[in-house]
Amino acid sequence: MKLANISPVLKHMNLPNMITTFGLVFGIIAAYFLTRQDLRMAIIMLFFAGVMDLIDGFVASKLKQVSEFGKHLDTLVDFFTCVIMPLWMVFYLLDYTHVVFVALIFYCICGLWRLANYNLVGGGEHFRGLPVPSAMAIVTVVTWFVVMHSWPMLVVIIMFIVLGMLMVSGFQLVKYGLWQKAFGVCGLLFFLYVVIWG
Questions:
Q1: CATH code at 190?
Q2: Is the dihedral of CA 186, 184, 148, 152 positive or negative?
Q3: What percentage of residues in the chain have a pLDDT greater than 90?
Q4: 46-56, pLDDT tens digit by residue?
Q5: Cα–Cα distance, 163 to 82 (Å, whole number)
Q6: What per-residue confidence (pLDDT) applies to 2?
Q7: How far is CA 102 from CA 90, 128, 143, 176, in A?
């Protein structure tokens, strides 16, 4: 009996799509730790979710297993880990105001629009606007310093508004360019900082 006869989604379960799915699992575990107000463990889980997001496309390309299913799966996982997760961070960790809440809604709408648009026009050698995983990386770092080092809430408001505008902006970023490598190095250094000294 073919797996597709058991469930039609099973025919899509190759290695890249399993890696993407593990990204969702790490995101769910991060959400659990946020409900326990454990930002350190949440950030560790989000880091691994980001690693999954980083390598799934690379593996799909190398194995020649790029597919429409994989593209949409990646978008849905990004929506949860990069757009919805800030909701958990604000609700469970921050003493937020109405202004912060409105700025967060703005961020989520822009993230949703960017992901939907990327599925239509994605591909090529450039990103148009800031990718949502990069935005989420910034959200994570800023949230850490607000919670652990008492940065003012005004920083959170500015962050959500600026990141929202950047995600839906028209400026172009070279895929896998120097900026992305710098983001990766900074993300790794921040991860090590949280693990060792957090």
A1: 1.20.120.1760
A2: positive
A3: 69
A4: 999 999 998 99
A5: 12
A6: 64
A7: 12, 25, 17, 33
Q: What is the mean pLDDT of residues 143-155?
A: 94
What is the Cα–Cα distance from 89 to 19, expressed in whole angstroms?
24
For 97-148, the pLDDT digits (tens) are 999 999 999 999 999 999 999 888 876 788 889 999 999 999 999 999 999 9
Name the nearest CA neighbour of 108 among 78, 151, 74.
Answer: 78
How many domains would you assign to the chain? 1
Query: What domain range includes position 167?
Result: 3-197
* 135: amino acid identity, one letter: A
Question: Which of 43, 19, 76, 47 has its CA nearest to residue 144?
Answer: 43
Q: How many CB atoms lie within 10 A of CB 157?
A: 19
Give 152's DSSP letter.
Answer: -
First vs last Cα of the chain: how many Å apart? Answer: 51
pTM beyond 0.85: yes
The first and second tokens of residue 84, run together, are 């919805």
Q: What is the mean pLDDT of residues 145-158?
A: 94
d(CA 57, CA 66): 8
Predicted confidence (pLDDT) at residue 3 exceeds the cutoff of 60: no
Handedness of CA 101, 105, 106, 110 (dihedral sign): positive
Distances (CA, A) of 99 to 22, 131, 153, 157: 34, 24, 10, 7
